[in-house]
Records
---
Amino acid sequence: MHNRTLGVMAGLVAVSALMLGACGGGNRNNNNSGGGPSGAPATLSLNAQPSFGVLNQGTGVATTTPFLVTTATPGPAGPIAPNLFANATAGDVHFLEIPFNTNVLASSILSGGAAGLDGIEVRDVNGALVPFFLDETGALDPTNAFPMPGMTPPTVRLYFQAAGQAMGTPTALPNDASFTVNLITSRLKTATGGPFCLLMTNGMCSNPVEVVYGFGTGMDMMALAPAANPSNPLVNAIIPIDQEIRIFFNDNVDFQSLVGINPTTGMANVTQLDPFISTPYPVNNVTTGMMPMTFAGENISVMYTPPAPNVLPPQYGFVLYMPDPFHNPTEIRVRFVDMTMLQPSDIAPLTQNYGIDGAIWAAAGQVAPVNNQGLTLNLPPKLPLPGSDPTGVAALALTLFSANNPLASDTSPNGDGVLGITDRSRNPLMMDFTLNYTMQMGTPIANNPSPPDLILIKNTNTLDGVGAAAVTANSLPGGPLLGLLFPLAQPLNDPTVLGTIRDVEWGAFLNTMSPTNIIQNPPRRLNNASAIASGIDPGVPFPPGGTPENNLLNITMNPFPPPLPPLGVRLYVTDDTGAVRTFDSNTFQPLGSLVGIGNAYGMSRDANNLFVSDFAAGNILRIGLNPAAAGTFHQILATIAVGTAPTAVSVNGDQEDVLCINSGEDSMSVVEISSGLEQERFPVGLGAEHLIATGRMLGNPQGMTLAYQAFVTNTLDNTITVYESDSTNIMVQNGPNGRVVANQGGFSGPLGNIWNFNNVLQGTYVANSTGNTIDHFQMTMFNLQPPPGFPGAPATRTFQVTQVFSTNQITSSPSDVVFDGLGAIGGAPPSVVIGIYPGTGQVATYDSITGVLVGVVQVAGTELYGYFDQ
C-alpha cells in the first residue's frame, strides 16, 4: 500500500500512479444530488463526453474533438467507430478535456508523490503511466485558469508532460499510439469533497459501470488481447453477486465481432432493439462431430458440465452483453439465462426483447432502447446453473476465438476477411483465450463463511485488504496448499471517513429464490497457482477502484441468482464516534449511518438481524437487516439490557443466542434471540477482549454434547474462558442456560480468535499478542454426566492446545487470526490459518493441516475480518 502526500507546485501538479480503474461514469442529470455549500452539487459527474485536444503553440489555437459514442443499429451494421485522432503536426501539443458538472478538487485528480492515489490516470499500450499536468496558472489556456488554489474549473484540461523537460512542459503524444484514460470513482472529488458518481438511484450513488476510455493517435496499431496479469493476480471491484463472467480487454471491443453473424439469417446476433446484448445461445454452444462449429456464428464457446446426478436442461442458455459501450467499452459479460423467456412479438427473428439499463444510455447522452410497449428495457433475468453439492464439482470452459481458430468466423458486415474477435479498428485477437473454471460448495455454516477469500484489515481508521483466493490445495482432501496471499487496493483509505475503528461486520446475503432468505455459502473456486498464473482469477469483490490492473481477467459465479437492489451484502463499521456506518460492500461507497444508536461498539449478526452493543447504555440493540422487510430494515427492533460497558458480540453458528463481553464488570451475557432477553451472566477473566461462539456439535446424539461453545480471550490474565450452552444431552450438568466449563491458562496475551468450524469438536484459533504463536485450542475429550439416579462419572471437559503456528520469518507478535476452510465438513479438508502481525506490518498464511507457512505479505493493521466471495 502507498501513502501519498499532496505535492503542490506553482502552475502544475504532476502525475505518477498505480492503475486501479474506476467504477462510475457520466450522468448529466446528476448536478444537484443532495445539494452542497452555496448551491454547489454534492456529487461530481460528467457533463458530456471527454474530448481530445490539440493546441498549436505557435498560433495559440486549440481545437477539440469529442470522443465517439454514436451507437450502432441492430443487425448487420457497423459498430461504434474507434476513438482515433490525428497525429501531431509541427508545434502541436496534446491535451484531454473532461467536462464535469462542478469544480473539481485538484488533489483528487493528482495527489503527487509516489504512485497509488490519483483520480485520473492515462496509460499507454503497455500499461505504463503517461505523465500529465493540470493547467493551474492559465499560461497555456487562460480560459482554464484555476478559480482558486487546489480547485480546478468544471472543464478540466490534462496536458501531457514532455519527457526529460521541466515540469509543466507540454508535449504531443507519439504517432500511431494507443492509450486509455481512467476516471477512478473512489478518488475523484468535488471542490467541497463530494464523491464522483455516474448514476443516481433513489437519491443514492449506484455506479454500475466503470469509466475507461480508449483512444489513439493516427492508426490503431495495437492488437486486441484479453486482460491477463500472471505476475500480480489483483482482483476487481464490481464483481456481481450473481452468476456472470466478466471479461476485460486491453482495447475497445467490437461487440458484433464477439456475438457474430447468424449464418442462416445473415444478421448480427443481437437483440432487435439493442446492439449491445446478444440473442440467447445454448450453454454448450459448440456442436460435436466431424466439423465442430458454434451454434450461430458467434466467436465464443461456453461449455458447462454439472456434477452427477445434475443434468443441464435444454432451456439453459447465455447472453453476451457490454454493460457500458460508451464509458467502458473494454468489458464484456456472460450471463446465464432462460432461453424460453421470449416476447411473443419477438419470435421472428429469434431474439429476446431485452436491453441494457437505460440509465447508462442516458449518461452518454443517448436515447435508451425501449420495448414494443415503449418501456425502457432491462437485462434478462438470470437462471441459476445446476451447481455442485458439497461433494461435487462443476466445470466451466469458456473460449474466446482468435483469428487463428478454425471455428472463428468473419463478422464484418463488409466481409473484410478478419476472423475472430476484434477491436473497433478491426485489429484481431491473435491467440485464443480459454478459461477453465471449477466450483465446489463450501461449508454451510451461518456467519462463519467458507472461504473468506477477501480479508479486510483494520488499520486505525482505515480498512486495507488482502486476498486469499490464490491459496488453494493441489489435491483433495487434505492436500498441501499452494499459492500466496496478495495485497489488495484499500477499500476505505480515506482517514476522514471513519474514526478509530472498533468493529466490522458484513450484512447478510439474501437469496431471493427463497421466500425466507435462507443464507447459503457460494462455491469454492478451485483454481490452483498455475491457473491463476495463466490469468484465471477466482474473483472477489475488490478493489473499489473499479478497472482491473492492466491485463487482468475477472470472473465470478454462484449457484444462486443475485439479490435485487437494495438487497445484498453491506459492510457495517463502528468507530469511536459511536456510530454504525454503512457501506456498499462492492464499491465501498459510504451509504450513511444507522440512527438511534448512542455508543456502538461490537457487532455480530444472524440471517435477519444485526446485533450492536451500546457501550454507554449497557444494551444490545437488535437491528433489522432485511431490506425487503418494510418498516424494519435498519430500524432498532429491540433493546436488550446486559452488563456494564458491553464490547465484543458474537451470534452462535445456529443463530439461537447472541453473547457479549461486559468489559466494565468482567462478565459475559447470554441473550436468547427468540425472546430478546438476557438469560444469564457468567464471569470471565481480566481484560476480556474478544469472543467467538461456535455452532452446535454435530454427530450421534447419544455420544455428542449437541451444545455450542464460546471462547473468550482474557488478555490481561493470559487465559481463555470457555462457555458451553445447554442441550438435550447435557441439561443435567449445564442447566437451561449453559455454564462456564473451563478457564484455561498458559496463553500469552490472547487477543483475536476465530472458530475452527471444520472440526466436529469445537475449538478456536487464538493469537497470542505478547507471544509469537497462533494456537489451535480445542476440546479434545469429554464425557456426558449420567441422568440422576444412574451410575457413572461426572461430566468432564478436557481442553488443550493441539497445534501451534509460528515462523522465524516474522519477529513480531500476532494480534488476530481468521480461518479459511477450503472444503466441506468431514475428512481432512485443506484449510488456511491467516494471522496478522502489527509490529512488522505482516500478514501470514499457514496450512492448518501441516502447520507449514504458506506465505507472507506486507499489509499494516491489527485485526482481520474475513469475507466470502458471493
---
Amino acid sequence: MRGRVLPPTDQRVIEERHPFELQRTKRRALLRVAFPVLGVALVLASLLGIAVYSDQANRAGALSLSDDLIAALEKRIAIEVSAYLDPAAQALELARDLAGAAAAADRRTVAESFAIDALRRVPQLANVNIADGDGDFMLVRRGQAASGNEGGTDTKLIRNLPLPRVVIWTHRDASRHEIAREFDPADPYDPRTRPWYIGALTTEQIFWTGIYVFFSDRAPGITAALRAEASDGKQVVVGVDIKLDALSQFLAGLKIGRTGRAMIIDAQGELIAYPDATRMLRQQGDDLVSVHVDELDDPALRAAWDRYRVEGPGRRTLEVNGSRIVTAVVPLPMSGQGWLIMMTVPEDDFIGFVSGNSRTALAMSLTVVAMCALLAALLVRQGLRADRAARALLDRSLAITRQSNAFARLATEAGLFDRSGDAPPPALCEILAEVTSASRASIWRVMAGDGALRCEDSFEPETGGHVAGLELALAEAPQFLAALLHGEEIDVADAAVDRRTATLHELLMNKIGSTALLMVPVRCDDRVAGAIWLEDCEPGDGARNFARAVANMVAVRMAEAPPAALVRTGALAGAGAAEPQEVRSFDAGLALRGLDHPDLAAEVFPDVAVLVLRFADPAVLARRPPGGGPSLADRIICVVQEIGTEHALPYLKLAGDELVAAAGFGTADPTAAIRIADAALSIRDRCLAMLEEAELPSSFSIGLDIGVAIGSPLGQQPRVFNLWGDVVRSSHAMAASAAPATIQVTEAAYRLLRQHFLFRPRGSFYIPRIGAARIFLLAGRP
C-alpha cells in the first residue's frame, strides 16, 4: 500500500495553523472529552465503593447472626437430647431402687410391674432389663404387632437356678392379663456377657453403651445400665434400651439455612442421630452396624471431622471444593457420653440474600451511571460538534484560499491553453493532486475511431512522477467508457463495487491501491473530449468544483480533433519524432556481476523470444465441462502444444499456473519473434473461446519480450533444459501486469514486430538495468 506525500485536508489545515493554536485545539478536545468521562468514572467509582462496603458490612452482619443461630441450635439440640434421655435415666434410677428394696421373692413381680408402667409412660424406652450374678434375667418389652399383641407387653424370663435352665416368654394384653406363655429352651442368651451388664459393674454412675442395633427392632439404639445391691446381698444390674429414631426425626425437622444439616456423633465418629435415618446403618456380613461420619461420602462432613480431630471443638469456616462451608463441632452436654453435635451449613445459605441484594442494588445504581453516561455523551457530542463546526468553517476558508492560490498559479502557466503542445503542462496535474489531496490525478483524452481513452498526463504525489501515453480501449472497460461518453459524472467511494468502474479498478486503480474515484468529463461543445480523474481525493464539494473548473480549462486544449487510437507500422503517437532507443547489453550486465562468457557453464542466446501465459485464478484450470471429460487445464495445454507445434516453438514448459514458450535459440532465426507473436494471438483467441464456452471469466493474460537469455540442461538423466535471464523475468512481469485477455509486450518486442502487427501504446514500465520503457498491447495482424 502507498503512503501519501501530500497530507489530507485535516492534517494540512492543522499544519497551516500556528503551533499554539494546534496545542489549544488538542487541549480543548481533550478537556471536552476528559471532564465528562472523569465525572462518569467518579460516579461509577463512588457507587462501586458504596456497593462493596455495603456488601462487606451486610456479609459480616449476616455471619454474626449465623453464629448466634448456630449457638442457639446447639442449645436446642442439647435440650432436646437431654429431654429425650433424662426420663429414661430417671426411670432407670427408680428401677434400681425398687430392685434393691424388694425382697428376693417379690423382686421379679415388682420389677415387671414397674417395667410395664415405665414402657407406657416413657415412649423412648424399648426394653427394660434386670439381671443378677447367677445369670437370671428378665426383659420386658412392648407387645409386637406381628404377634397380635399390640398394646400389650412381652416378658422374657431366664432362670438358671435351680437347674434345669428355663426360658419363658409371657405375653400380656393391655389389661396385664396373661394371654399366652411359651418356652424357649434353645435360647442361649446370658446377660452377664453383655456390655451393658459388664460396664454397669465398673461404676457407681449410670453406664451408657455405644450405639448398636437392637436385635428385635433392627433399629439403632443405646442401653443405660445401673448397678444395685439387693436385700439378699446379690448384685443386680438394671438396664433400659433407648431407641434413637426419635432423635433422628427431630434433627430432620431442624431448619438450618436452606441446606444445612445437624447430627449427633460419638467421640469415634459413629453416627448417633442423623437427619436421614436410612443412612445411619450399613450391612456388614449378616449384621447391621452403625455408619462412621467418613463413610457418608460428604466432603464437607469429612473436612469438618478432620479439622475437629486436629484442632478440637469449635466453629469454623472451611473452603470445600470452591465453596465456603460454616461448620461447628461441639460437645453435647451429657454426663459421661462424649457425644458431639456436628453442623455443616453453606455460607451462601446465610449470606446468599446479601449477594442477591447487592447485585440488585448495583444494577439499580448502574441505571444512575447510565443516565450520567448519556448526559456526558450528549455533552461531549455537543462540544465536539461545536469544535468540528469551527474547524469545518476554518477548513472551508483555507480550502477557498488554496483554490484561489491554485487558480493564480494556473493563470501563470502559459502553456495551459496552447493547443499546439503535445501534452498539458505537468503543473496542472500536480496542482490538481495538491488541492484535492488525491493519490493520483490524471487528464485523459477521447481517441477517434473506437472511442478509446489516452492518458495525456498522470501524476502520483507518492512517487512524484508523471506518466503519459497509457490507452484504455472500449473493450477493456465498456461500461465506464459508455458512461463517460454519455457525459456522466462519476463519484464513487469504492470503485471495485460499482458496475461502471469495477473493471477500471481492476485494470488501473488496484495497482496503486486506490479505492475512490471522481471522474469529471471534459466537454467541448456537444461532445465529450476527455476527462479529469481524481483517485482517493478528499470528499466534499470543494474537490468536485475545482475538478470541474479545471475540466473547463482543459476543454480549450481538447477542442481540436482527437488523434487516432490504433497505430500500426510506424504510425504511433509521436511517430516521425525520434523514438528513445532501448539498449540492452548482456555483456555489460555480466561485467557488473564480475562474469564473462568463459565463466558461464551455460549457453547464451542473444535473441530469444519468450511468451508467458498466466492465469489469475488457478482454480479455473481444474474445472470440468458440464458433460464430463478432461479438465480445462488439460484442454488448454493440449491446445498450446498444438499451437507450439504449428509455429515451431522448441521450448514449452508448464510451471504452476504459468506456461512459458520460447523460440530463437539458433544463431540465425529471423522468424522467431514473428512465430512467437502469431502463437500468442492464437493462444489468446483459443483460450477466449474455451472460457466463453465454459461460461467462465477471461482470467488470463500473456506477456512477451525478446532479448538475451541463458539456457542449460540441468539435473540427472534425463536432463531438463532450463531457460532463465532478464527476458524471462520481463515476460513474467508483462503477463502479471497485463489486463485480462490481453497480450502485453515490451518496447524491444514492439520494435521488432511493429512492421508486421498492430499495436496500441500502454504507457511506461520499469525494466531492471534498463530503466523506464514503453509497453504496448499486441492487437493483431493488419
---
Amino acid sequence: MIIDGKKVAIQLRNQIKAQLAQFSDIQITLATVLVGENPASKLYVGMKHREAHAAGIHSKHITLQQDIDQQSLEAEIEKLASDDSVNGILVQLPLPKHIDKDRILAKIPAEKDVDGLTEVNMGRLVQGQNQLVPCTPLGVMRLIEAYNIPTRGKTAVVVGRSSLVGLPQMLLLSAHGADATVTLAHSRSENLVEICQRADILVSAVGSAGMITAAHVKPGAMVFDVGVTRTAAGILGDVDFAAVEKIAGGVTPMPAGTGPMTVACLLENTVKAARLQGILPI
C-alpha cells in the first residue's frame, strides 16, 4: 500500500477551507520570515503560501538579508508578535550560522507558534496538552488516522532525535489515545537493524538517503519516510522505497508522502492558533 500524503493533504486543506468559509468576515493570516536566498527554503515558503491561499488563509511574507544581525531579526519577529492581524508566525529554518535560533524562536508568542517549536509549546507537548505541535510529526499522525493504522499497544520505532521531528514524533505516538510503545533510535544506535525490525510502525527522520533498507523492515510494517536529502538527481528519502515497498504493509513515497502533510498541518495549526487567540470560536 502506498500511503498517499498528497491525497490526504488535499483532503485536509479542503476541510480547512470549508471551516473558514463559515467565517467569511474573518481574515486569518500566516506570516513567514525567510532570511537569505536559500533556494530550497524559498521553494518551501512559496509552497506554504500557495497552499494557504488555496485554503482561504491570507499570508504575508518577509524576506531579510543573509547578513542581518541578531538584534534586527529579533526586532522583526517582535513586530509580527505584536501585530494583532497576524495569527501565525513561521520562521523558515535553517537560519544563518551567526543567528541564535533559540533566541529567535523565543520571540514568537506560544499562541502564534504554528511550527510548534517554542519552549512553551514543546513543554506542553511533553505534558500531553498538544496545543500547537510540530507540523511534520503531526502530519504523520494525520496519515495514521486517515489510513486507520492501529497504534494502540503496537511497537513503534522513530529513527532520528531532532526537536523538529524525532522527539515530538515519539511523544505523539506514545501519548494517550495513540498508546504505542515507542523506541527512539538514531544514526548512532547500535543494532539499528534489529531495533527497526521490531517496529509495527517505523518513522525515519535522519536525512540519510537510503539508510532504511528492506533488512530494517518487519514484514507488514507501516513505514513513514520523513528524512530529506537533496541531490543532483532530486530529493531522496531515508527509505529505499523500491526495496521496502515489497515487504512493508504500507510506505510513504518521497516526495508526495510526508512533505505535503507538513504543509497541510501548518494550515491546521494556523487555524488552531486563531482559535487560541479568540479570533475563531473554539
